[in-house]
Design brief:
Blueprint (H helix, E strand, L loop, with lengths): L2 H8 L2 E4 L10 E4 L3 H7 L5 E4 L4 H10 L3 E4 L7 H10 L2 E4 L4 H10 L3 E2 L12
Parallel strand pairs: 2-3, 2-6, 3-4, 4-5
Antiparallel strand pairs: 1-5
């Protein structure tokens, strides 16, 4: 899947990075808690979030993410977009909720970041 495919699937608006829409993406994660993103994401991916503050861009930089998807029609402010532009991020906005965006992308073949699904006794 490419970022352009994501734009089409989510009926999204491209806010930054129109020249990078042919970039392939293989996994995505969804969270408004950047600490969770930092804890569980270890590969280049797409972040779907409803959080539109500078922490999202900082997290993206730390993880070398390719694309930010802002859900629920959120559009980050000019300072956040400027920081994202400096990193070369693609930024899109969709009116879909984060849950719906994830479902649509999953249905189209995009998968989540792999995490262990088994419980062990230390998890209890």
């Amino acid at each position: 899947m490419t970022i352009q495919d994501m734009v089409d699937i989510l009926k999204a608006r491209v806010l930054l990075g129109e020249d990078k829409l042919d970039t392939p993406v293989y996994t995505a994660c969804c969270s408004d808690l950047m600490s969770d993103v930092l804890a569980f994401v270890d590969e280049k991916t797409v972040l779907i979030t409803g959080l539109s503050n500078p922490h999202v861009v900082r997290t993206s930089e730390m993880l070398d993410l390719k694309c930010l998807v802002f859900a629920r029609g959120k559009v980050p402010g000019p300072d956040i977009l400027e920081s994202a532009a400096e990193q070369g991020l693609v930024v899109i906005s969709t009116k879909a909720t984060a849950f719906t965006a994830c479902g649509l992308l999953y249905e189209a073949g995009l998968r989540g970041v792999p995490v262990p699904m088994e419980w062990n006794t230390e998890d209890a």
